[in-house]
Amino acid sequence: MGVSAAPPVLRTRALSKSYGKRLAVDRLDLEIGHAELFGFLGPNGAGKTTTIRMALGLIAPTSGAVEILGHDVRKHRAEVLPRVGALVESPALYGYLSGRDNLRAFGDLLGGVSRRRIDEVLEIVALKGRERDRVKTYSMGMKQRLGLAIALLNDPELLILDEPANGLDPAGIVEMRDLLRGLVAAGKTVFISSHVLSEVQQICTRVAIINHGKLIRIGTVSDLVQAPGEYEVKVDSPVELLAALRLQTWASNARAEDGYVVTSAPEGRGRDLIKFLVENGHNPDSVSPRHRDLEDIFLSLTADEKR
User: Fold this and answer.
1) 1, 56, 243, 304: which sits with the fewest CB atoms below 10 Å from its CB?
2) Which residues pair with 30 in a beta bridge?
3) 10-212: CATH superfamily
4) Domain residues of the chain, as ranges?
């Protein structure tokens, strides 16, 4: 007999939530696998936080279900939730206590956490050496890292993080990025909701974009940011090249952008574009597939939804 595949770490099945006549989440289907860093994106009011609250068992779905590690969250809450760590909005920390004492206090709520585990999470989030300082003296980045340390106390398999880069300066964002990458490398699955799209593009393997509670796109970051069929061309005489391209039916979208000529290719193939360039006396310095920022894709997709 073959070994059955492990269930997704997090799965939503036709997940919906209504508040009166307003549909906050609309038949959402997601699957997130082991050791994946998954980005969950959408404008304010799109349904991100509502989805997270249902995943954590804080509110009940109107219909559909959330499964974590193969178990329905509502039916197996006591079994599933101890395997999940969460950082939702800014952590509620005790400013008058030290970082270590905050961890001890939250550990007591979990039924007690060993001194060794507290030392381990302090090491993971790079707060060793500052653990005896009062939290009110911490920077925003340190507070966010301490909040993440609290989420890690029970050594969860899944981390659900709502805007972990919120309020961080550039150095704090880099610290959080390195921390999340390290957690995934150690085998954790990280589900991250964020509006810092440039950061999501750097760290996430896959993303889902929702708007008005509906899933409008899901895929790998590399697939999403590659503009299909468009190429960036660097030549000595871009004005003359643009004139030549605009005479071609396959290059009606040709335009100048950021020092490059951006154009489609004959039959959508880069080698045919290079052949055209050379035959028309425009030997290129470079020809490469055009990529867009995740922010561009996000804005275009959510704008389309508003029309």
Assistant:
1) 1
2) 12
3) P-loop containing nucleotide triphosphate hydrolases (3.40.50.300)
4) 10-212, 228-292
CA distance 97 to 220: 42
CB-count exposure of residue 90 (10 Å: 0-12, 13-18, 19+): middle
Backbone angles phi, psi at 252, to 5 degrees: -65, -20
In terms of CATH architecture, what is 228-292? 2-Layer Sandwich (3.30)
Q: pLDDT per position in the chain (307 positions), as tens?
A: 455 578 899 999 999 999 999 999 999 999 999 999 999 998 888 899 999 999 999 999 999 999 999 999 999 999 999 999 999 877 789 999 999 999 999 999 888 899 999 999 999 999 999 999 999 999 988 998 999 999 999 999 999 999 888 778 888 888 888 999 999 999 999 999 987 788 888 899 999 999 899 998 899 988 887 766 788 999 999 999 999 999 999 888 888 888 899 998 888 888 999 999 999 999 999 998 887 778 777 777 777 555 4
Model confidence, pTM = 0.80
